[in-house]
Amino acid sequence: MTLSVIVCAMACDKENTPDPPGGGNGGTTGVTGITLNKTSIELEENGRETITATIAPANATFKTVAWNSSNEAVAKVTNSGEVTGVAAGTATVTAKAGNKTATCAVTVKASTKPLEAFSVKITGAIDHNTHTPNQSGTVEFSRFPATVDEFKQARDVIGSEPHGAVALQIMAFEMYRRDRKVGEACIHLNNVTTNANESVRRLKELFGSDQNYARPYQMAAFLKGATPRNGYKPDKPYTIEVRVNNGNAYKHSSIYNTKVIYLQVLTAGTDGGTRNIDVLKTRKPGTPGENGKFFIVFNSPGLDSQVKKIAPDASFKGLD
């Protein structure tokens, strides 16, 4: 008799227990739909436009959007929905969240104007050997490099200075956002191997498809004039401002047999107003920098740590 009462009580309790939130999926809320802000766009070759995906419901647990292009010879799309026109023709961009999809028709027309000439200029001086507080420098450039050769062209102009290596890092990271293969090649040209590998790992997350985590505007945040309020729209020409880390004297690295220079890059993307980055120049065999000709990055966690999100009523328009 006692046993039957216990079984009944357990059965009754189970029967009257409400389903967990999310329809019995262990507390998760599934995706019921996905929409795009545009169903068709028209670009010129080398033109860019960002498509925005909205997932329903708004409280969906996982907001990862996978993007793909039906014809990458015509149009490429990044994990943040930025579409680039490659060559004249048509393609379909598809966004997928869960098992829901939405599409945007892309038409690319032959460019009526050539790609803006790439130019870069460096000013200021940061001592290569002696820690000198308050020293600073800037790098100005017309647009981001489009190829590895253009990146090397920039390196020839600015790579022999510490703040030049900082600017090259920001260029390489943005290039990675646009084209993984080209960007990764540039990252390896500008970093010690350990930092190159760690940077690529972190950038896969920053430029990934998780709407809650991704920061497609991460590198824009390090350009003068860009703020969360204005959607990280920088002034032109693009300007990167770098200064010596006053509180961190240069230190000798026994691994690379050289001094590590500790710098800070200015940004409106963090409350402190700066992010740290460390550079060096080494002749160590097998290390980038062409046998000590160019500075390379030793450590750059400040550049691949999330910046502030843009304001709710702002949108990121991309970078040239």
Automatic annotation (TrEMBL):
Q: BIG2 domain location, by residue?
A: 30-107
What is this protein called in UniProt? Ig domain-containing protein
> Where, by residue number, does the polypeptide cross the bilayer?
none
Show the taxonomic lineage.
Bacteria, Pseudomonadati, Bacteroidota, Bacteroidia, Bacteroidales
User: What Pfam families would the database entry show?
Assistant: Big_2, DUF6935
Database matches in Gene3D superfamilies:
2.60.40.1080
> Which InterPro entries does this chain map to?
Big_2, DUF6935, Invasin/intimin_cell_adhesion
Q: Per its UniProt record, what SMART domains does this chain match? A: BID_2 (SM00635)
